[in-house]
Amino acid sequence: MSGAGGSSDPTMSEINVTPLVDVMLVLLIIFMVTAPLMQQGVQVALPQTQAQNIQEDQQRLILSITRDQKIFIGQTEVDRETLEEKLIANEKLKRDKEIYLQADRAIPYGFVVDIMAVMKRAGVESVGMLTEPPEKDKK
């Protein structure tokens, strides 16, 4: 005997999680695709050398020089004339006194040395040179 006017179908008490799983998988794919893009900064063709990898555990101040001799502190482009004052005003550099130089391999050596002299005048005590590992010979 069912109730007066009620249906005999039991109510569904389970939650359908299939749409939730679909949405979560789409979000996971989006994050997997965009995460590497967030790590990359200014595109520079680095020289190749065998060296130890630096730890990625903390944010480091990186000064980049592109092939066309544009200078960037992090992601911000800086003029050659204002580079020293921008470095002096940088809070991270005031604290750490350390900077990493990422220069394109096609940049003239003299230009890089000139930028390093500016960094020295701005109070930089330690300069790390970023390079790429050499390509393995394919046999």
> Stretches where pLDDT falls below 50 for ≥5 residues?
none
The H/E string reads HEEEHHEHE
- Strands of the widest sheet, in order across it, are 3-2-1-4-5
Number of helices: 4
Number of separate domains: 1
Largest sheet data = 5 strands, mixed
By CATH reckoning, the class would read Alpha Beta
SS elements, strand count: 5
Strand percentage? 5-15%
Structural class: alpha/beta
Please state the overall shape, judged from the principal axes of the Cα atoms.
elongated
The CATH topology annotation reads as Nucleotidyltransferase, domain 5
Q: Report the mean per-residue pLDDT as an integer.
A: 80
**CATH architecture title:** 2-Layer Sandwich
Notable traits:
alpha/beta; Nucleotidyltransferase, domain 5; 4 helices; 5-stranded mixed β-sheet; 139 residues; 5 strands; single chain; 14% strand
Model description:
The chain is an alpha/beta fold. It has one domain (42-139): Nucleotidyltransferase, domain 5 (2-Layer Sandwich), CATH 3.30.420.270. The chain has 4 helices and 5 strands; from the N terminus they run H-E-E-E-H-H-E-H-E. Strand 2 (71-73) and strand 3 form a beta hairpin. It is elongated and about 85 Å long.
In brief:
The chain has 139 residues and is α/β, with parallel strands linked by helices.
What is the strand and helix layout of this fold?
Layout: H1 18-39, E1 62-65, E2 71-73, E3 76-78, H2 83-89, H3 91-96, E4 98-103, H4 109-121, E5 126-129
Parallel strand pairs: 1-4, 4-5
Antiparallel strand pairs: 1-2, 2-3
